[in-house]
Every structure is written in structure tokens, then in C-alpha cells.
Amino acid sequence: VTGANSSSGLVIVEVYDLDAAATMTSRLTNVSVLGSAGLGADVLTLGLSVQGSGKRTFLVRGIGPKLTSFNVSNTLSDPRLEIFDSNSRSVLDNDNWGAAAFVNEQVLAAGAVGAFDLDVGGRDAATLSLLDPGNYTVQVKGADGGTGTALVEVYDVP
After folding, report:
1. What is the predicted pLDDT for the residue at 7?
2. How confident is the model at residue 36 (pLDDT cuts 50, 70, 90)?
3. Do 152 and 61 form a contact (C-beta atoms < 8 A)?
4. Where does the chain show beta strands of DSSP type E?
5. Is 80 in contact with 125 (CB distance < 8 Å)?
6. Cα(48)–Cα(122) distance, rounded to whole angstroms?
7. What residues have CB less than 8 Å from 150, skipping those under 6 apart?
8. What is the model's pTM?
9. Which site from 7, 96, 98, 119 is most exposed, i.e. has the minimal number of CB atoms within 10 Å?
């Protein structure tokens, strides 16, 4: 999405899976947003609606430093990832992915969904999330108050 005549501002892009069949023949497996991450109203935000019954596993990542290997400049040097439920309660957060619980499972999940590898000891943020059906908000901001380009990703892990 780009602004007409080089204009800028906030934008919402929505994607819906309308297959209501019991077999769920289609399935959205990944959504990601690349943008500027700052503080306050400038936090990089992605909305997620989990449907169905029972908990589902998601790999949720806030990428900054790793983006330099994809020739992205001005990256967020130390992203912090936080997931909020529909009541604005923080349900999960991570600063450095290697310090998260279940790191080995996280690496396996990344391979299973086709996500690029994160650097060992890197400052990118990531977590495996077991979420109930409901609406969530994923936010990425600078852990150190910094700003820069970041990528927020959510993968549905089979």
C-alpha cells in the first residue's frame, strides 16, 4: 500500500478467509507487515483474529537487525514484541528471541512454516504462542526506545 502522490499516513489492510466449510479447505498460514516502528502511536501493530475451537500455535516474530541481511536500511536495532488480547491485557512478550521459552521448538516451527532463520544471539524478538480463539494485537517497538524499520510476522504452526 502506498499513498497517492507520495502522501503518507496510517493504513489498514484486512485479509479474510471466507471458507466457512467444516473442512476448512483454505487456511491463511502467514501474515506480515514491514513498517516503521517507533513509540506511542508509532508502534508497529498487526491485528490477528483466531477462529475455530481450541487453542492454536503461532510463531510470532518482531524482526529488526536480521533485516540488514535483506538489504533493508535503518532497521530497529532491538525490537520488543508484545501480544495483547481483546481486553488490552498483555498475554506474551519477548525482547531477544534466544531468551524465549521453547527456543528449540521455535527453531523447528520456523523451519516447518518456511520462515527465515534468526541469528544466534541476535536481538530480534520471537515467541511461540498458544492462543485461544479471539482477537489479538501484536506490537513491535524499540526495547531501548529506539526507532527504525521492523517486520512483524505471524505464522500459523501446523
Report:
1. 72
2. very high
3. yes
4. 30-37, 44-50, 56-63, 79-85, 90-94, 125-131, 134-142, 148-156
5. yes
6. 26
7. 34, 35, 36, 37, 44, 62, 63, 64, 67, 75, 76, 79, 140
8. 0.88
9. 7
